[in-house]
Design brief:
This protein is mainly alpha-helical. The protein is built from 5 helices and 2 strands, in the order ααββααα. The protein has 2 domains: 88 residues, no CATH class; 31 residues.
Length: 130
Amino acid sequence: FALGAEAVQMGTRFVSSAESPVHHNYKQAILDAKETGTYILNKKASPCIRALKTERTAKIYEDGLMPPDTFKGIMDVYFGGDMEASVGLAGQSSGLIDKVKTAKQIIDETVTEFFEITERLGALNAAKNF
């Protein structure tokens, strides 16, 4: 917001929430990911996607293109917990997620942080201290 954004996309944060029906292994892979824990895949074509680093995604990353059957085993990733069955989609923010929280906690913390930041910006503006 401070830099001009009007909204946020929080898919990775909510897929790792307590209420999310995805397999524990997928949530844990998000929690374990570092700031550099994802690849941008399919850069030589469209669509580009971001996915958690695994042996499978390393190969796709190196090749530059996703094979036609990339998403064939996606249900096995999300609901079976086999992180090599397909690609586990995740945003760059996965490196900032370190705990499974309820959706309510995520929303409450996001709103609280928004107001803290906008108050600080308001104070800086009032003091002409940008």
